[in-house]
Amino acid sequence: MKLLVLAVLLSVACLLAVAGSVSGQPNQATDDKQHHAENRTQAVRVSDHERAAQHTRETDNDPPHWYTPLKRPEWWLVGFGFGAVIVAWRTLNAINRQVATFISKERGRLAVELQPFELRGTNELWQAGLLVTNHGSTKVFIENTGYLPCVEKSKWNTENAAIHLVIVLPKVIAPDQTAPRFDGPVQQGDKLHLHTWDMSQEIIDAIRSGKKYVFALGYIQYGDVFGNTWRLRFSRQWRASFQPDGTIWHGDWSDYGPPEANSECQIKQPSRLVKLWRKFQKGLFPQP
After folding, report:
1. pLDDT at residue 273 tops 70
2. Res. 220: pLDDT tops 90
3. 202 in Cβ contact with 167 (< 8 Å)
4. Regarding the domain delimited by 108-273, which CATH topology (the fold level of the hierarchy) does it fall under?
5. Domain ranges within the chain, ordered by starting residue
6. Closest Cα to residue 152, out of 234, 202, 207?
7. Among 151, 149, 155, which residue's Cα sits nearest to residue 235?
8. What's the pTM value of the predicted model, to 2 decimals?
9. Cβ atoms within 10 A of the Cβ of 275, count?
């Protein structure tokens, strides 16, 4: 038994000794394989370098085509981005047009109608009456008004006329509702003085001869239910045909002045950012 164990130990010792000697000697086959692999790698690198140089020379000799950027995926992304922006912009414009059309159909809309005018004598008060009607589908909210019925020369420039009178109207006018008639006293010219409403025989004769006419101009500023503000302007001239004895044969109101004198426009309101900035300025620089 002892001899068997000793034999096993000797065998193990011999194997370890052989393994150590084998590992200590250089492996000629392995070195050859590594050398061939390195040579092959260098050859591949040289070949790749030559192909790259050749490609560069070909690129320099051959200018890029118009479709060259299309081969790069990032340009496709840029194109899709621009396309999305254009689609969004067109969609927003279409929505704005639809909203504007809806507001135009549904908003309140005022109209001013001058009532038949009667030329009176020298000791009487002349009055030019008017009616204001809401022809829209929703309510309107009156903000401020102005009215000037007066006698002026036939070719009067109404652009800088001074409007003093206020048209008394309800604060809210419902759809298809007409406000109570308002009569404004007719004055001499647009300037206020001591004899503003005293009509002389000279003025009556000037009206009969066509040298002077009766004018009625003014404005109404109002808001609608959509938060918009509108300004309605009107400018009318009363002309009459007289009989030989001086009595009126026919008289009627007609539009006078440029087209914008009888028109309606929307008043643009400042944005919320502008309103906040104005409040900030008032808080930062309070008025004395």
Report:
1. no
2. yes
3. no
4. Immunoglobulin-like (2.60.40)
5. 75-105, 108-273
6. 207
7. 149
8. 0.63
9. 11
